[in-house]
Amino acid sequence: MKKTVVAKSESFANVRKRILARNRAVGALWEQSEPKRRIASMLARVRKQAGKTQKDIADITGWDKAFVSRLEGALGGLPDQQTIARYVEACNAKVGLVVYTSPEKGQLHVVETMPFDVSGDTRGSRSFSELRDVDIELSAVRAKV
Known about the structure:
Radius of gyration: 20 Å
Largest sheet: 3 strands, antiparallel
Oligomer: single chain
Distance between the termini: 52 Å
Number of helices: 8
Low-confidence stretches: none
Strand order of the largest sheet: 1-2-3
C-alpha cells in the first residue's frame, strides 16, 4: 500500500520567523535591513501606481536604470531625502515628513508636516501643511483603501 504524504501548508511569516530564530546572524541582518526594505517597497509601489517603469524613472531623473533598480532593492544603504523626493516627484507625487502621535488605538494626531520638494514646485506644499493639527481615524482610512 502506497502512503500519501500531504505537504503541510505554512505561511511565509511563520517560515521567516522559524528561519530567523534558528540563525541569529541572519536574524540580525534581517532586522538591520528593514528600513531599506520598507523604503524600497514604498518606492516600487509609488512607481507602479503611477504606471511607470524603472526605465521611465531613469529617463525622467537622468539616473542610470541600474541605480533605480538598486533604490527598489533591499540591499545597500538608505537613500537620502533628496533622492527619495526626486524619485517620488518623477512619479508625479510628493513626499514629506509627518510627525504624529497616537492618542488612542486606531487614531493619529498630526503634530507637524514638512514637504520635501526638490523641484521648487510648492503647489502641493500648502495642502500638505493643512494636515497639521488634524486627527485621523484609521478605520475610516482603511475603509477607503
